[in-house]
Amino acid sequence: MSNIDHILLFSILFFVFYCTTNLKQKVINKHFWKIALIPIILYSIILGCRYGWGNDYPWYKYRFEHPYGYEEEDFGFRLLNLFIHELGCNYVGAFIIYSLIFIVGACILIKDYKENKYMLALFLPATLIFSTFAIRQAIAHAFVFIGLYFLHKKKWYNFIFFTLITYSIHPSAIITLLICTCIYFLFNKPLKYEITIPIYIIATLFSNYFNEQITYIISNLIPFISFDNKFQSYIDQSDYWFSSDAINEEWKQGPITLIISMCFHIAIIYIGYISLKYRPNTKVIYLYNSTILGFIIFRLTFYFEILRRIANPFVLLYFIPLGYSLYIFSHNWRLYKKREVYLCKICHICIFSYLILYFGRFILQSPNYIFYWGK
C-alpha cells in the first residue's frame, strides 16, 4: 500500500487534470494559461518533491549539489543547474524547476491546437513516468515540444535555436525532434491502421525473436562503431547495454497485462486514424504517425533499457493524437459509420480501462515512492 501522502497528492493531481475536460473548448482557447496554471503548479510541486525515485535520482541530486564538480556535463544542463544554484534553491527546488520546465514546454505545444481539451488532461498519464524516471531527458524534451511548436509556425530560426538547446541538455533528445520533423515533411496522411495494427501485433507477439536478432545485429556492429564523445561509454559497455545479458526479464508482462497494454495501443491507433480520416489536421497527423512508430519500436526493443529510452519519447506523444481523436469523436460522431462508432466506443473502453488500472495501481501500490519530507 502506498503512503497516504502519495495517495492523496496524486489523487488530487489526476482529479485536477481531469477537471479540465469539463470546460468548454472555447473557454480553454480563450483563457488557456489561466486554466493551465493550477495543473502546472501542482504538477511541478508534487513531482518535484518526490524523493529517490527516478533513474539516477541520487546522481542527479549529487550533480546539482556539486555544480562545479562534474566537468563532462552537457553545457545546457550544467548552465541550468548553475542558474538554479545561484537562485539559492536546494535539490528539491531544482527538481520542481525541472518539472516546471517540462510541463510548460508541453503546454506551449498543446496551446497551438484548437482541439486541445483532452490533450491537457492526457498529458499527465502520458508523461508522468517518463518525466520522473528520465530526468535530464525530460528536461530536454520540453524544448522538443517548443521546437515542434515553431515547426508548425515555420519559424525556422526559432526551430534551430531550440534544437540546439535540446542538444545542449541531452543530445539523444534531438532524435525525437528530427524524426518527428522528417515525418512531418514526408507523410501528409495518417498511416493506415490496416497496415500498422498487424505490424504492431507481430512486433509484440514475436518480441523475443526480434530482441534476439537485435542482440545479434548490434553485437556485430559494435566493433565498427566509435564516438569521440560520451556516447562512447555505451559502446565500451556494450555487453551491459546490448548483449543478451541486457535483456531484462523483470519487464516481462504476464498474459493479461500484455493483452491490456496491446489493446490500449491498438485502440489509439484505430481511433486516431478514423478521426484524422474525417477531420485531417497536419499538425496532428505527423505526431500520430510518430506515436505509432514509437509503439512499434517500443515493442521491438521491449527488454532493452537503452533502446526503450529512444522509443519512450515517441510513445508519450499519444496525448496529442488521442486528445484530438476524443474531441473529434465527441463533436463529429454523426459523420462516422455505424461500425466505426461501435468500434470507437470499444476503443474508448479499452483506453480508459488501461489508464484507470495502470495509474490506480501507481497511486495505491507504490510504497517505495516517497517525498522528501518522508525520507
Explain what the structure shows.
The protein is an all-alpha fold. 74% of the residues lie in helices and 1% in strands. The chain is built from 19 helices and two strands. The protein has helices spanning 4-19, 25-30, 32-48, 57-65, 75-86, 91-111, 117-133, 135-153, 156-169, 173-186, 193-205, 207-221, 232-236, 238-241, 255-278, 282-300, 305-315, 319-332, 338-364; strands at 50-51, 370-371. It has a two-stranded antiparallel ribbon with strand order 1-2. The chain is globular. The two termini are 17 Å apart. Mean pLDDT is 88; it is low at 224-228 and 234-246.
Q: Count every beta strand, where a strand is a DSSP E run of 2 or more residues.
A: 2
Instruction: List low-confidence stretches.
Output: 224-228, 234-246
Shape estimate: globular
Helix/sheet category: mainly alpha
Write down the Rg.
21 Å
Series of secondary-structure elements, N-terminal to C-terminal: HHHEHHHHHHHHHHHHHHHHE
Distance between the termini: 17 Å
Q: Major sheet: size, sense and barrel closure?
A: 2 strands, antiparallel
The order of strands across the largest sheet is: 1-2
Could you tell me the mean pLDDT?
88
Counting DSSP H or I runs of 4 or more residues, the number of helices is: 19
Strand content: under 5%
Question: Helicity range of the residues?
Answer: over 70%
- Oligomer designation: single chain
